[in-house]
Amino acid sequence: MVNIVPFEADGTAQHSLATELLGTNEAGIAQTDEAIRDVAGAVYSAGGETVTAGLHFAILSLVLHPEVQKRAQAEIDRIVGRERLPDFSDQSSLPYVGAVFREIMRWKTAVPLGLPHAVTQDDEYEGYHIPRGASLISVFNDHFPNRAMLHDPEKYPDPHAFKPERFLREDGTLNNDDVQIAFGFGRRICPGIHIARSSLWIMIASLLATFRIEPAKDAAGREIPINEDRVEGIVSTPVGFECSIVPRDAKARALLDSLA
User: Fold this and answer.
1) Where are the domains of the chain?
2) CA 231 centroid distance within chain
3) Is 176 in a helix, a strand, or coil?
4) What is the pLDDT of residue 49?
5) What is the mean pLDDT of each run of 10 residues along the chain (260 residues)?
6) Is 190 marked within a binding site?
């Protein structure tokens, strides 16, 4: 439920979907406040499941690769320090964290299949007639298309290995591969790509800055094996796994306490 609060524009709002829709009323295009509210809210709610799945895969990736976790934390400590959380102004100064984010999106794709789309008019493609209204979905060699492209061994050598450095140039800067294919392609790319990217990056960076993610242990002190399998679907999620998420140290705990 999104409540409507009466307001009066003062000209300071940043350009956004909501301000664009509100502007259509002034232009004489009828839009009810309820419709504008629902459309703006849907942008966030529609991505809730996929962003949550992405965060779960991030935790799985980090608990399985402690050396990656430590290197990313060292970069954050060096650039950001220990007195605050990373913010978006730090993003360009944290290339390894960016590489970790991209590798998570590539290695464990949260939306491996994409969504079907219907054609609006009759079409022909490589000798096949596609009638108006037919639903189409891309498939590559009997694999989920987005996942298949992100695991192409020609583009990503050793594709099933978790290697953030594949997104770094020799000088340590990020390369031009932003794994956009994880969000689809063409005109039908996910309209929430920017929100999803920003949300996941800031969550991963904040998690790395403050917590250690380690395998859980049983009553005898033995590490509990982690199941890397996933539940397949339009949105893919990890199967249940246990891990321990604890403050990195006293400095991290103090920072968390100051934010509570």
Assistant:
1) 69-118+133-209
2) 17
3) coil
4) 77
5) 61 78 63 76 73 92 97 98 97 98 91 75 91 77 66 93 97 94 78 87 98 95 90 82 96 95
6) yes
Closest alpha carbon to 225 in 56, 64, 47, 53 = 64
Residue corresponding to tokens 């199941």: 227
What are 177's two structure tokens? 């591969």
Phi, psi dihedrals of residue 228, rounded to the nearest 5°: -85, 0
Residue pair 201/136 in contact by the 8 Å Cβ criterion: no
Q: Which two tokens stand for residue 89?
A: 């102004």
**Strand, coil or helix: what is 135?**
strand
**CB 252, CB 81: distance < 8 Å:** no
Q: Which residue has the tokens 């009553």?
A: 219
Give the residue ranges of DSSP H helices in 108-210. Answer: 145-150, 193-210
For residue 201 the two structure tokens come to 């990056």
The model's pTM is: 0.81
CB 31 within 8 A of CB 38: no
